[in-house]
Amino acid sequence: MEDRVNEAIEERKSGNTVESIRILKELIDEYPESGSLHYQCAWSHDASGLEEEAVEYYEKALTYGLDEEESIGAYTGLGSTYRALGKYEKSKEVLEDGLKRHRDRGLSVFYSMTLYNLGETKKAMELLLGQLCDTSSDESIQSYAAAINYYSRDLDRTW
């Protein structure tokens, strides 16, 4: 099975998502409760621009169980897919659930985008600015990190 999964991943990486999906669906027929196969199939659907179809596979992947790395990817993928489909509340719900389970910066950034779409711009900016301060090695950002973090908590405040 591992060789076939690797083949499907390589097909996806080379842009042949149709073949990747075909291989993964065959494997899912053999191993219908494999969270990892459902996750890979969801990813290949997403890479094909088939977001609606990806949702079912992401949901099954999370239901059947994944290792930590794949779980983070599935929460990110599903939350991002819901956002791309305009299902912002569902996106928020999925990403919040993912963030309860995993401390992951990528999840947090996608969550910020969803908050923006929901009009929760203050919270979105606070999260993004915090990520910027925490991850940037740029000296000019780091020299102002304390101020950026302080101001990010209430961007509308004036003195």
UniProtKB/TrEMBL annotation:
Record-linked PROSITE patterns: TPR
The protein's name in its UniProt record: Tetratricopeptide repeat protein
TPR repeats mapped onto the chain: 72-105
UniProt keyword annotations, A-Z: TPR repeat
Domain Tetratrico peptide repeat group, first and last residues per copy: 39-146
Transmembrane feature ranges: none
Coiled coil ranges: none
